[in-house]
Amino acid sequence: MNSCLPFTSSFRPPSLLLHRMFNGSVISSSTSFCLSRLRSSSRSRSIISFQHVEMASSASQPSKSVATGDAIGASDVFHMIQSYQAEAARLPPIEEVRTILDGSVRGILSTHSQDHVGYPSGSMVDFACFDDGSPLLAISSLAVHSKNLLANPRCSLLVAKDPEDRTDILITLMGDAVVVSENDRESVRAAYLRRHPNAFWVDFGDFCFFQINPKFVRYVTGVATASLGSGEFTTEEYKATKVDPIYQFSVPIASHMNKDHTEDTKAIVQHCTSIKVDSAYMLDVDSLGFNVKACYQGYNFKLRIPFPKRAHSRKDVKTNIMEMLEAAKATV
């Protein structure tokens, strides 16, 4: 096993967004990478396991680096990515869903249209999550979806982790939207303004807060690929799950690495995956590792890079990255 893979996991396969197929044909940036084009035998759609990540033996073998100038075929790279990502440790799906929703600020709200009865009405809305994961909306009484919710509280909120990548995780939270009472308004207002500090309009007279009480939370990942996965959670499961404690540091850590340590990130990715990537851009960080967008000979795709051990603090993240960098430099 690769030295950068100390965890065992049976979670969802990677989401791969390639702007060009490995066979060389050019496709648009919005078109996802269909694995079945590369491996016709990979026809089955795997459903994601809900088992928790377990620690594996730390006595793993060092990764074998790909030397500069090595001729690697397209299928070889594909198999290396597939093999590596199958073992990469990830947050349990329900924890990932809870964490992504907590860190998101915008989604598509679908309500029951009162002007066109029987048809759904979609609106792009800003939101924030309350402590229990319930989405909070600040809506003007002039908005169409305000009228719709007052007539029928059943609604859904669609959130994409990466709106530019349809193969990445998509989350739909279904629930009942209720107007927040005056007794709860201050706590809800504070939670909303933490995510939207410049939303001064929430104090305008025509605005009120709605809270969506979740009934079901569904996710799907790997859309338009052979690695399609999905799952659904009840409100009890969703509310009982905690947000990953490291994800709150994701933006400053990734920004720092992308600004000052791009070569270090690339070296770590090369060492961990054995793929001589041309670049690696850190996307986000959690307790078990980080995600990057890598480039290899003009092909862009996402990779999951797990930590040697779980991080419990921001300092642990730095320690893990330094350890991974030292291992990468030792093999050069």
From TrEMBL:
Domain of life of the source: Eukaryota
Protein name per Swiss-Prot or TrEMBL: DUF2470 domain-containing protein
Residue ranges annotated for the Pyridoxamine 5'-phosphate oxidase N-terminal domain, each copy included: 95-220
GO CC annotation terms, alphabetical: cytoplasm
InterPro entries: DUF2470, Haem_oxidase_HugZ-like_sf, Pyridox_Oxase_N, Split_barrel_FMN-bd
Ranges of residues in domain DUF2470: 252-324
Any single Pfam family the record assigns to this protein: DUF2470
